[in-house]
Design goal:
2 helices; alpha+beta; about 15% helix
């Protein structure tokens, strides 16, 4: 599992290499929806994996894609609610990237506690 470094900027763009892939993530705060959306670009293949995909606390984004990983928006405060302001990403939220197996194990551990 990896934590994606975030800020409270309106748009955050970063490139990284994970799971044998070179990726570019563009994360945006949508003030109307009060939520986060992202684009994920595969640098190796020169194409978008997805554009304008939403993030919601606890929901595995990209689970339906044929990828070895998912993105999960985690609420560090444990309130379990989505953002109410753009400052939440840098303060209350963290963006995790993990394998699908790690996500399933985290769900199993959460159910036990």
């Amino acid at each position: 599992m990896h934590i994606i470094q975030t800020t409270s900027d309106d748009v955050l763009e970063q490139s990284f290499s994970l799971y044998d892939m070179n990726l570019k993530l563009t994360l945006r705060y949508n003030a109307v929806l009060r939520g986060y959306q992202f684009d994920l670009f595969n640098i190796d293949e020169g194409c978008y994996i997805t554009k304008n995909k939403g993030l919601s606390v606890g929901s595995p984004s990209l689970i339906e894609f044929n990828l070895p990983f998912v993105l999960v928006l985690d609420d560090k405060s444990r309130l379990g609610i989505n953002a109410i302001s753009k400052d939440d990403l840098n303060n209350r939220m963290q963006l995790l990237i993990m394998t699908k197996g790690e996500y399933r194990e985290a769900i199993r551990q959460g159910i036990r506690t």
